[in-house]
Amino acid sequence: MKKFFQTALANLDREAWIRFFAALIGLTLAFAAALFSTATRQAGNELATALLASASLLLAGLVGLTTVPYLARRVGFRRMRDALDYEITREGLAYMAVVLLIGVAALNTGNNLLFIIVSAMLAAIVISGVASALVPRALRLEVNLPEHVFANQGVLARIVLRNVRRWLPAFSVSVVPLKLRRRNKVTWERTLFAFPPRAKPEKQWFRLPDLAARVVPSAEERAEILAKPVYFPLIPAGTTANAEVELCFSHRGRYVQNGFGLATRFPFSFLVKTLSVPVARQLIVYPPVEPTDELFEVLPMITGEFESFQRGRGYDLYRIREYVEDDPARHVDWKATAKTGSLMVREFTREDERRLRVVFDNPPPGQVSEQGYERGVNLAASLAWHFAAENTELSFAGPGYTGGADVYDFLRYLALIVPREGGNVLADLPLTDDFNLVFTWRRQGSISTALWACSYVVFLE
Predict the structure, then answer these.
(1) For 53-69, what is each residue's pLDDT tens digit?
(2) What are the boundaries of each domain within the chain?
(3) SS (H, E, C) 95-132
(4) What CATH number labels 137-182+220-286?
(5) Is the pTM of this model over 0.85?
């Protein structure tokens, strides 16, 4: 029985029931206040009549604005949920205050003209809600994002709205990021019910086992890609409106937005109606590659060792062949010429063959400070981008790296990388004729002599 009771409590939508009973209590109090206002009016107490009538209207309005839309949104009909997804503006609050004052005056005086005015003002609110619900329904949204995005560099995204109606235009529409509401989790904990509650345990009359509800707030999520609304004043019927939005991200990583909203204040700006559009977008932001002081410090040393390594390989003898018109005289091999009787020259390996391998030895958590880790990632991205622009034949290696020789594959790898336990990528690295640019957290003694001889090492700190 106890297990059944706990399961029922776990499956119960507690927040919805709490709001439902709170609404019943509020409406009961509003009805009681209205009855007492009638009685005080007949008794001639005008002050009590005004206070009770105002309290009745306030309680009824509070229930109507907070509880009824929330419960209606839980209904399985999508149109009803969308039609009730709204927020009241400051103008709407001021308008409601005026309606409340005129309503109190109408109740106190019994003037039919005031009742007509209140009815017309309430009808305007209904019309505003219906019109704002109809405007975004005929709009189709497209969000086009750039393919390659770097941190700290602005890029342009294109937002397209298409009005599929044949006759009616759409007014005052904004594309906004969806506000993901915080959903609190209610957990039941074992406790004791004691009386008197504030007395010491030895002075309490009785103590009984009890259950207490504890609200655990969940982490609030926010849309990542679109931060500000994009406004479209008019979209004529059957046409398309475009807007370019500048995006700039301060950090590398994956940015995900699960949906957008079409919001409008049309026609009276009493309500902001928002229609959710399930258009999911994902964006990978690469590390920044703009030149920095650290890049200018290490680049001459890396370039110098790289060029020395290439020159050493460039003077290896490849073959001896016959002389052609464009060969320099210093490459003439006189011994081979004397033996063959024809002019022979020595041919060497290509001096312009530039092959570089960038290796990122990802450290486990705690080995490198967060600032040092980010500096290493940014420097690796900047150097890879620099040598890719220098017509260098690049290759890449790292724990878990499965991309190819394209620099964008490596930048994507660096955009999502985090400190992680893994194998020794330097020990498993095959030795080739490439010059290696190694980013590692290991000490110099743990790097093999063969790898050290053909590498420039950047130590992560």
Answers:
(1) 777 777 777 777 677 66
(2) 2-135, 137-182+220-286, 185-216, 293-315+354-459, 316-350
(3) HHHHHHHHHHHHHHHCCHHHHHHHHHHHHHHHHHHHHH
(4) 2.60.40.10
(5) no
